[in-house]
Amino acid sequence: MVLSKTASQSDVSVHSTFASRYVRTSLPRFKMAENSIPKEAAYQIINDELMLDGNPRLNLASFVTTWMEPECDKLIMAAINKNYVDMDEYPVTTELQNRCVNMIAHLFNAPLGDGEAAVGVGTVGSSEAIMLAGLAFKRKWQNKMKELGKPHDKPNIVTGANVQVCWEKFARYFEVELKEVKLRDGYYVMDPEKAVEMVDENTICVAAILGSTLNGEFEDVKRLNELLQEKNKRTGWNTPIHVDAASGGFIAPFLYPELEWDFRLPLVKSINVSGHKYGLVYAGIGWVIWRSKEDLPEELIFHINYLGADQPTFTLNFSKGSSQVIAQYYQLIRLGYEGYKNVMENCRENAIVLKEGLEKTGKFTIISKDIGVPLVAFSLKDSSRHNEFEVSEILRRFGWIVPAYTMPPDAQHITVLRVVIREDFSRTLAERLVIDIEKVLHELNSLPARVAAKLVANDQSLENVAVVKKTAREVQLEITAAWKKLVADRKKTNGVC
Ligand SMILES: *Cc1c(COP(=O)(O)O)cnc(C)c1O
């Protein structure tokens, strides 16, 4: 008779991970542990904790790509150990980035001759791209002012109050004053007339947005270009334009090829786009393209010797992964113009299905535009009992992540829910979402007005002291403020990127 012997050590290679001691000890959060743990246990524990993150595919808050073809996933994994900066060792990867720059520059109608290389660079995202474009404008402006013998220590940049946070970062990190054109009720993008009024001799550029983060609307770059050309003629200042096409740069060329927003307009000197938004690549890639060599001051460029040839570089970071560059090249050649156009048309169609479904409920005002980034931004018509933050909160229970946020000045009293339609958000999901939003509305209807009830109670206690009458707008502002505080207390970011 053979007697089998049981292994007694707590070894996951013998026991199942869940039978080991590793799943019952708490993991280090501050100091690194003294001892190692088996790889199976490390994998299982981390994997399981990550289950509590939301499902990226249902994250309707983000523009950033959450799905790519398995063939591209394979290319990405194969390049995961390649440092992009080692251009000598990985010359083909460098070549692929240069090809992407050329293709995107052509898409944006850069004035290039046949076979002429475009001026641009791959970045980690639009934020880095915007830092680089902003630096180029700042340096060009400083050089000009120095030549003229004028002070060059108070540069400013003109944008709408709807700019993405990276512009505020640029302004603070690189010491440029941010002059924001305020929004107003019913108009949530930069007014070109007001922007041009704000331009002065110290303005390094006006930044227009193609696809406002808040409601997807395209700013009127053509009008801005006209007005600024007139002002430049009058003043001799030559103020240029940058277009932040983070989300719209891969939409407009396919859906609205006639729309003039890019290098067709003479004052547009640089454009950024997020490869990881509608460029259809996973997070970690953006692009900045300059109109011509003259628009990127030579002193900002570093020259790397790349197989005996000169490879100019202009980035903030040194090492980074190569996978995203390769993935971008995959998408550009795999999809071609036809493929991108089909994807963008599908997104637009599904945005319309969602928009019409929401309109049918009769409960929402649509804040997004038909021409723009395929997203649906909407507000409750009546938020006296329940507001958009409650809709967002209850939708989470159905698995949907739909952010609610307030507009920037002077439209802070408007709260918006936003659903970004990405490639992987199919019609079935759009229809489901409408059904679930209807359920949420029904549920809210049966609930007491939470915050509003509290505010009314406060009002009544106040009434004993003095009669306080509030306008509907004041009540709305208070409700919004209370919810903002509640949400801010729970997490510091509002989930809108
Ligand atoms: C997303 C976004 C950015 C920031 O882009 P990242 O690629 O995430 O760094 C900047 N501007 C606009 C308009 C955006 O939508």
UniProtKB/TrEMBL annotation:
Coiled coil ranges (UniProt) are none
In its keyword annotation, does this UniProt entry include Lyase? yes
The N6-(pyridoxal phosphate)lysine modification is found at K277
EC assignment: the record states 4.1.1.15
User: What CDD domains does this protein map onto?
Assistant: DOPA_deC_like
An example of a GO molecular function for this protein is: glutamate decarboxylase activity
Q: Which domain of life is it from?
A: Eukaryota
Per its UniProt record, what Pfam families does this chain match? Answer: Pyridoxal_deC
**Cofactor (UniProt):** pyridoxal 5'-phosphate
Function summary? Catalyzes the production of GABA. The calmodulin-binding is calcium-dependent and it is proposed that this may, directly or indirectly, form a calcium regulated control of GABA biosynthesis.
PANTHER family per record: GLUTAMATE DECARBOXYLASE
* Name the record gives this protein: Glutamate decarboxylase
